[in-house]
Amino acid sequence: MTPTKLRRTLLIALLSAASTMSPIQSSSACSRAVYFGKEGQTVTGRSMDWLEDMHTNLWIFPQGMKRDGGMGENGYKWTSKYGSVIASVYEAGTADGINEQGFVANLLFLTETKYPEKKGDKRPQISISAWTQYMLDNFATVSQAVAEIRKEAFRPVMVKSENLRDATVHISISDATGDSAIFEYIDGKLVIHHGRQYQVMTNSPTYDKQISINEYWKQIGGTVMLPGTNRAADRFTRASFYINATQQSANPREAIAAVFSVMRNVSVPRGISTPSQPNISSTIWRTVADQKNKVYFFEDTFSPSLVWVRLSQIDFKAGSGVRKLTLDGNPNLGGDQTANFMEAKPLSFMAPN
């Protein structure tokens, strides 16, 4: 290709991408990607981008916990089948985690979310702050979760975060085989994308549009040009390319390093702000879940060190108790923290005012 033709191709790519991207209105810019290593070395990574500290801590929840979806008498009831390690937000909800079966759930912001209307809906309710925990408590595989969620046995209820932002979210799940699913509520209707091909999720626009934008960039080729802004559609494209371009290894250390490198590539540096786009937020933490070896890594961007938890060394039996690792206010924690969780009262899921 001549230099003139190359410049023309790049210009067309840039203009086309700009025209297909809808304005981002959310205050969050999270990203999630699933890595398919050799010999079943599946790893899921995510970034949490938010406009303020969410006072995140890590928790161990055992089997046998009785739940009401954070909605009391009107709540959807279940008892946890599986134990899990989770990352909380505002001590009032589960944003991310992995259960003892290697099943991972990640909650991300989506401005376009519109939940089912309350009027005339007599189904039991579940607070969005408990949605991720519901997934982790109940399922070992993505297929199980999809089959159950399709029944629409409960009505999700929006809450407001501590800073009074509407919690309009969508959720991704993945299991140890690499299967994935994305769940969104668009115009009050449940939309599900199920399959290994749904490796990546960011934020706006809705998932079907994200896929269309990414298909365009695939024609350009990631080694020729990738969109580089912190917009959700650009992060989706970069994550989609890099998660598959990076070395696909059976070595868990190499796999973990590869996923962290991709999640850092799609992160937003601390302190970054755009006066004309106040919605863009810095990355405050990242997680990487080794679903084959059942190890959960957490990286606070304010901390110099990683912490990790080995699920194989945790007693998840019913009655073993809730335990908590306090990260909030302890930025110097580092290394294997499996043995350092302390007995704690369960967090209370945020409910509507």
Number of strands: 20
Helix and strand sequence = HEEEEEEEEEHHEEEEEHHHEEEEEE
Number of domains: 1
Largest sheet: 9 strands, antiparallel
Q: Determine the CATH topology.
A: Penicillin V Acylase, Chain A
Question: For the terminal residues, how far apart are their CA atoms?
Answer: 61 Å
Poorly predicted regions are: 3-27
CATH superfamily (homologous) name: Penicillin V Acylase, Chain A
Describe the structure.
This protein has 353 residues and is of the alpha+beta class. The chain has a single domain, classed as Penicillin V Acylase, Chain A. Helix content is 22%, strand content 26%. The chain is built from six helices and 20 strands. The strands form four sheets. A nine-stranded antiparallel beta sheet has the order 13-12-11-8-7-6-3-18-20, with helices on one face. A seven-stranded mixed beta sheet has the order 14-1-2-15-16-17-19, with helices on one face. A hairpin with a 5-residue loop joins strand 16 and strand 17. Helix 1 packs antiparallel against helix 4, helix 4 (207-220) packs across helix 5 and helix 5 runs antiparallel to helix 6 (252-265). It is globular and about 55 Å long. It starts with a helix and ends in a 10-residue tail after the last strand. The relative contact order is 0.21.
Give the tags.
353 residues; alpha+beta; Penicillin V Acylase, Chain A; 9-stranded antiparallel sheet; 20 strands; disordered N terminus
Chain-wise SSE layout:
Elements: H1 3-20, E1 31-36, E2 42-49, E3 58-61, E4 66-67, E5 78-79, E6 84-88, E7 94-99, E8 104-109, E9 125-127, H2 131-138, H3 142-149, E10 155-157, E11 169-174, E12 180-186, E13 189-194, E14 200-201, H4 207-220, H5 232-245, H6 252-265, E15 283-290, E16 295-300, E17 306-310, E18 323-325, E19 335-336, E20 342-343
Parallel strand pairs: 9-10, 17-19
Antiparallel strand pairs: 1-2, 1-14, 2-15, 3-6, 3-18, 4-5, 6-7, 7-8, 8-11, 11-12, 12-13, 15-16, 16-17, 18-20
Helix pairs in contact: 1-4, 4-5, 5-6
